[in-house]
């Protein structure tokens, strides 16, 4: 399942990030709490070096709380603050302004000493496709200025969005890197929908997800799909799930595409419970 997907608009986005850094005070990087490492763009550390940064672990309700706490400890540094949010419900977003004020205290103190009272903080929002960037911006702005969609890369053009708390957000399209050197990273991104399903073999993808879940979360599969037990063979588990959910065609043959879509949709929607596919 080698993946090499780097559309031209993503190359353009990387250039735009570099060009616009000089206009912002800080960077907010959004990641998926279920795949914290895989949903980080390895270019961001290099591109945004020297800028204060907040890493938001989004969709935190879909990941194990204990594992997420380990990630926060692992990623936090003097110039990088890490916190959890749920952009759909707004949970955790009230921590954004205090974290920015902490990161930018020295700069803000200098401005206040010059008599500037109403300080507007400009922040660039970055993240790979489908981590919830537009939902985050819409929540912060309390409207729907940024186009939201469930397809990776739906946000295209650069946008400045004002908020009521003295923060202006610069939106950028979701950007991936040119090549996935690690197959596991590519799979994790595909599991969570960061890579378009259209370029993947969806049946194989669902089979690989079952392999991961039967190793780490077998009880979730048993509970969700009312299985009597878990086999060591992912294909057997997939077929058992298909039978339980009626994903069969004539003569009792398995409809593999239908059961694959079902499993991936239920994982992505959190119906299998809180799952962390990566640990520090």
UniProtKB/TrEMBL annotation:
Pfam families associated with the record: MMR_HSR1
Tree of life domain: Bacteria
SUPFAM superfamilies recorded: P-loop containing nucleoside triphosphate hydrolases
Cytoplasm in keyword set: yes
Localization (cell): Cytoplasm
Domain CP-type G per the UniProt entry, residue ranges: 11-178
Keywords noted in UniProt: Cytoplasm, GTP-binding, Nucleotide-binding
Main location: cytoplasm
InterPro entries: G_CP_dom, GTP-bd, GTP-bd_ortho_bundle_sf, GTP-bd_ribosome_bgen, GTPase_MTG1, P-loop_NTPase
Function description: Required for a late step of 50S ribosomal subunit assembly. Has GTPase activity.
Protein family membership: Belongs to the TRAFAC class YlqF/YawG GTPase family. MTG1 subfamily.
Official protein name in the record: Ribosome biogenesis GTPase A
Protein species of origin: Clostridium brassicae
Gene: ylqF
